Amino acid sequence: MNSLKIAAALSLALAAAPLAASAQTAPAPTPIAITKCQVQQYQGLEGRRFWYPWAYNRYGSIYTDGVEIAYVNKTPLPASRVVFAVNYRGDVEHVVDAGTFSPGVSIDHTFGQFTGLAFLGVRPNSCRVAAVRFTDGTAWRAIPMPQ
Fold first, then answer.
1. What is the pTM (predicted TM-score) of this model?
2. What is the domain partition of the chain in residue ranges?
3. Over the stretch 75-134, which tens digit does the pLDDT of each residue have?
4. Cα–Cα–Cα angle for 116, 42, 110, nearest 5°?
5. How far apart are CA 41 and CA 57, in angstroms?
6. What's the fold here for domain 27-141?
7. For residues 35 and 69, what is the distance between their CA atoms, to the nearest angstrom?
């Protein structure tokens, strides 16, 4: 009888240990603030093509033309590399921006990911900072998203 109680107590303690450990670790705040994350719509030639009998589609193209991300470094350290995880239409791409990104300066870049896909609107499903490397060699990483 005692061995059954001990076995039950041990299995309960082992099952609860990962939950207690994860509850104690709080995620660090994101060092980068995303101010804009939009998928761009391809803008083709304006006007009517000589071989096309109907008017030009005034609603724009059906294709995407990259992703535009604007962000600000909130830390006192300059960043040298920022990695974004962008989900559009269920496709996840890691967008890497490399350079020197000073604190408090607004950065607005357009990247080639998500080019040539079916355009389903400018808003991606999600857009978040995945990792940041600073010029002093330190790094910040986000907690991985569940699959």
1. 0.73
2. 27-141
3. 999 999 999 999 999 999 999 999 999 999 999 999 999 998 999 999 999 999 999 999
4. 85
5. 13
6. Immunoglobulin-like (2.60.40)
7. 8
Q: Rounded mean pLDDT of 34-61?
A: 70
Q: Which residue is listed with tokens 């991300």?
A: 69
Residue 33 tokens, joined: 């603030």
Q: Is the four-CA dihedral 27, 30, 34, 40 of positive or negative sign?
A: negative
User: Strand (E) positions, the chain?
Assistant: 32-41, 63-73, 79-88, 91-101, 106-118, 126-134, 139-141
- How far, rounded to the nearest angstrom, does the alpha carbon of residue 108 sit from its chain's CA centroid? 15
Q: Considering just the CA atoms, what is the radius of gyration of the chain in Å?
A: 23
How many residues appear in the chain?
147
Q: Give me the pLDDT at residue 135, please.
A: 96
56-80 b/e (C-beta count within 10 Å ≥ 16 → b): eeeeeeeebbbbebebbbebebebb
Q: Give the DSSP per-residue string, 44-73.
A: ---S--TT--SPP-TT--SEEEEEEEEEEE
